[in-house]
Amino acid sequence: MNPWLALTPGDDPAERIRQIGRAHERFLAEKQRPERMRSVVADSWARSATWIGADCTAPIDLRDEELEAYRSAHPLARVMPIFRDLLGGLADDGDHILAVCDAHGRLLWVEGHSGTLRKAASMNFVPGALWDEAHAGTNAPGTALAVDHPLQIFATEHFSRSVQRWTCTAAPIHDPGTGRLLGAIDVTGGDHLANPHSLALVRATALAAEAYLKGLEPARERPTVAALGRDEALLASGTVRTKLGRRHSELLMLLAAHPDGRTGDQLGFDLYGDDVNPVTVRAELSRLRRILGPELLGSRPYRLRTQPATDFGRVTELLDRGRVADALAAYPGPLLPGSDAPGIVRLGRMLDSRLRTAVLATGDRRLLQSWLVSPQGADDLELWEAYAALAPTDPVATRRVAELAREYACNVRATYA
Q: Please, which domain of life does this record's source organism belong to (predicted)?
């Protein structure tokens, strides 16, 4: 059974709608995980319930000139002809809508027959609206972004009641060079969309877009390293891409962060703290040299002969130049988040702190919002308060500030009890 498909062969759609609808109402009343439910949907309901109520309506975040300026500069603007060519026929038939959102679930394009668009507008499924799970609950584009996988959401599987008349299929789209999430492509329509063919078509369209974007990449003379938001670094040199293991990822990033080189003792301390074994460090460096080649990794001290372009360095450079919005857009997450190496933890905290401070200092509502929907910002009371002050009508912000304030107050009382 494919967990990303809404229906299995032999399912009666009408009966399935009734079953899921009853499970939905029980979940809302009892707040207990529903049984006989796709795990991707049950997990999404649990996440959605922490943010919104089932009668919510997705808020509109961008309008008019501001929306047009934002989406015209977005990387996915370059692949809209592909989306229209491969999925436009569906959008023109009067039964389906083609939608494209950014990595935060903000709808950029919503296209289709005028009558169908009017029906969708009644639930704010329009350009500029926020359809991430935090603002719209379980839905195909928002949940596809949350789990980073193509999927279908069928009728009453939607968390928000106003969306349960629709069925949708969506797939995430990534930057082919860095793996960074760019957004998602979605087809929304009736219950007949819940079939393997629609999921395959939307997924193929996303892959075609990524292939096209890859062809637009300029030739890179230097190796590149992607290590933000991933536990294992990805090294790209020419057309060769190598996924490194944990220790090799840590060593490569430590060497990239210290272009003048590091001694074996320094690298050992960065990797293991006081519990260092010089033999282990030398063995790891020897294995890394076999991967990188002697032309890239030198010794005495250990250093990279060719300094790679890293996503860590790119974000740092953008912050140095005061380009906070670009730095945040280029930041998919913490440096090697699964690492406990002291040197990596120190570098990661330094970058997180710099970026957070810069975002807060801008006072820009959209930048604050982008930080808050990330894992590192979800519990950041100070930034939630700053965002709530700029968006006083956003019920999600008001609720989150109150929740975090209570949690922190309880923790303080527990500490001094």
A: Bacteria
**Cα–Cα distance for residue pair 160/144, rounded to 1 Å:** 16
Residues 264 and 138 in one domain: no
Render pLDDT for 65-97 as a digit per residue (tens, 0 to 9). Answer: 889 988 888 999 999 999 999 988 776 676 889
Q: Which amino acid is located at 316 in the chain?
A: T
Tens of pLDDT along 196-220?
Answer: 999 999 999 999 999 999 888 665 5
Together in a domain, 57 and 144: yes
User: What distances in angstroms separate CA 274 from CA 339, 347, 355, one per listed residue?
Assistant: 16, 18, 30
- Residue 297, domain extent: 224-310
Q: How confident is the model at residue 180 (pLDDT cuts 50, 70, 90)?
A: confident
- CB-based contact 291:285 (threshold 8 Å): no
For 188, the enclosing helix (H) or strand (E) is strand 181-189
Helix H or strand E encompassing 120: helix 114-121
* Residues 305, 36: Cα–Cα separation, whole Å: 56
The answer to pTM > 0.70 is: no
Domain match, 290 and 330 both: no
The owner of tokens 């839905």 is: 139
d(CA 257, CA 347) in angstroms, rounded, equals 8
Tokens of 345: 């933890």
